[in-house]
Each structure stands twice: as structure tokens, then as C-alpha cells.
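for the recovery benchmark. C-alpha cells below, seq after
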């Protein structure tokens, strides 16, 4: 996951400070997400996925499909 969020950030031409500001955390905390020193919460992962227009599964390396899943109607 660390490599994906770093790669997405760099590909977008952003700095860690930009993402930290968006997430409401410090640059140091965001840096720790990128290095794997700190595991982001599900809320943070969802926010990053939405920001980059991808899925949490992609960020976590569970799929190589960058496009987010299409949401279907209701429950399960």
C-alpha cells in the first residue's frame, strides 16, 4: 500500500503536505503512512481512494485495477 499511495501522490505532482492538509493530519503522520510505519484507518483509506478516484482495494494492493468499482443499488 505504501508504494501505491506514494506513487499516486508523485504522479499527481503533489507533496506530502498537500495530502496531509486534505486529510487533516500532519505531514509527519502522512509520511508515516507512505513508509508503512503507521497504518491508516479505514476512514483515511476511503478518503485517499476518493481523492485519487480509485478503490481501497487498489490502494491496499488487492487488485491492480485502478478504476473504482461501480456501485450498485442497495444492500448486500
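predicted aa per position
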Amino acid at each position: 500500500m505504501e508504494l501505491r499511495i506514494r506513487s499516486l501522490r508523485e504522479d499527481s505532482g503533489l507533496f506530502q503536505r498537500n495530502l496531509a492538509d486534505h486529510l487533516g493530519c500532519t505531514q509527519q503522520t502522512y509520511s508515516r503512512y507512505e513508509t508503512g510505519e503507521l497504518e491508516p484507518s479505514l476512514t483515511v483509506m476511503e478518503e485517499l481512494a476518493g481523492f485519487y478516484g480509485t478503490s481501497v482495494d487498489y490502494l491496499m494492493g488487492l487488485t491492480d485495477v485502478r478504476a473504482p468499482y461501480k456501485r450498485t443499488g442497495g444492500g448486500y
